[in-house]
Design brief:
Shape: elongated
Oligomer: single chain
Number of helices: 12
CATH superfamily of the largest domain: Periplasmic binding protein-like II
Strand content: 15-25%
Number of domains: 3
Order of helices and strands: HHHHEEHHEHEHEEEHEHEHEEEHE
Number of strands: 13
CATH topology of the largest domain: D-Maltodextrin-Binding Protein, domain 2
Strand order of the largest sheet: 4-3-5-12-6-13
Length: about 300
């Protein structure tokens, strides 16, 4: 007997799987395709099973494999054992999804942690009191590594310029880009403020790695204006404070806006595309139930907060 035949003769589960697939499809080639095997391999399984049991299980009729009387009996006995095993992968991932761990761990940068997440975390904790939330602060490249090491469940932030192939991005919200200024600024109350007018005043912006609005300089130059950045800061609260103190204007996503009493906003949607916020996760990894619950929380909070959903 060949090495392959000897292997299948001693692998009763594989023999039965091959037999059940052929019985259901009526074809060795279709059974082989469903199992990810070659046709000779499936034929060897059937042959080994028939030799082991000492009966004929299948016969060819009109180009189709049909069950003999013994084959019908074996199929009835084998299916309750084989079908659950064929569904084992899906059953396992469904069970993983239903599991509720002790913690939901989220990675995010400073603006997201400060302005977007508080409302989301509060709503989630109100309805998922049995799960604790861990928030980890880092910049995007470091958060990607946390995802790969499975130290966090997902990242919340703006749409990445280029999502790495091993990660996937799920957009949830869409926010306009706003210009912020002190309440007594000359541009307050003006309609259709141009970029030339905006850049005639000093700009105060976060550093590039902390900015939520991509390509500000590109947009400004496209309209023939000149960038007038006076100050770059690494802290969003400092940006707001410097604007409040009258040192200049700033351009931010509406996601970072909480109706500040000392500041005024003007929409810049005619110049800048909307900014999306969403989840970045490992590509191909099953989404567990506690993460699905948080996504649902994001959608519910978005509706009550009148945030645009993607």
């Amino acid at each position: 007997m060949s090495k392959e035949g000897f292997h299948y003769k001693h692998n009763r589960l594989q023999q039965l799987r091959g037999f059940c697939h052929v019985a259901r499809t009526g074809s060795i080639s279709k059974a082989a395709k469903a199992m990810g095997l070659s046709q000779p391999s499936v034929s060897l399984q059937i042959k080994a099973l028939e030799e082991d049991l000492g009966v004929e299980l299948l016969e060819r009729r009109d180009q189709r494999m049909s069950l003999t009387e013994h084959g019908q009996l074996l199929l009835k006995l084998a299916l309750p054992h084989v079908e659950p095993l064929d569904r084992l992968r899906d059953t396992f991932f469904a069970a993983v999804k239903r599991q509720k761990p002790e913690f939901l761990t989220i990675g995010a940068n400073q603006p997201t942690l400060m302005y977007l997440l508080p409302r989301l975390v509060k709503h989630y904790c109100d309805f998922q009191s049995d799960i604790k939330v861990k928030l980890k602060y880092a910049e995007t490249p470091d958060i990607y590594e946390m995802l790969r090491r499975e130290e966090i469940d997902f990242m919340i932030g703006t749409s990445p310029k280029n999502t790495p192939g091993d990660l996937c991005y799920i957009p949830i919200y869409e926010f306009e880009t706003n210009l912020i200024m002190p309440k007594d600024h000359p541009l307050v109350g003006k309609k259709n403020v141009s970029l030339e007018e905006i850049t005639s005043y000093p700009l105060i912006l976060p550093t590039c790695e902390r900015h939520t609005v991509v390509g500000i300089d590109v947009v400004i130059s496209r309209y023939g204006a000149k960038s007038g950045v006076r100050v770059e800061l690494e802290d969003w609260e400092l940006v707001r404070h410097y604007v409040e103190e009258g040192l200049g204007l700033s351009i931010i996503s509406a996601a970072g806006w909480n109706d500040e009493p000392k500041l005024h906003t003007i929409s810049l949607k005619r110049y800048f595309p909307n900014v999306t916020y969403g989840l970045t996760m490992l590509e191909g990894k099953p989404i567990p139930q506690h993460v699905t619950d948080f996504i649902e929380t994001m959608r519910e909070v978005g509706k009550t907060s009148k945030w645009d959903l993607v």
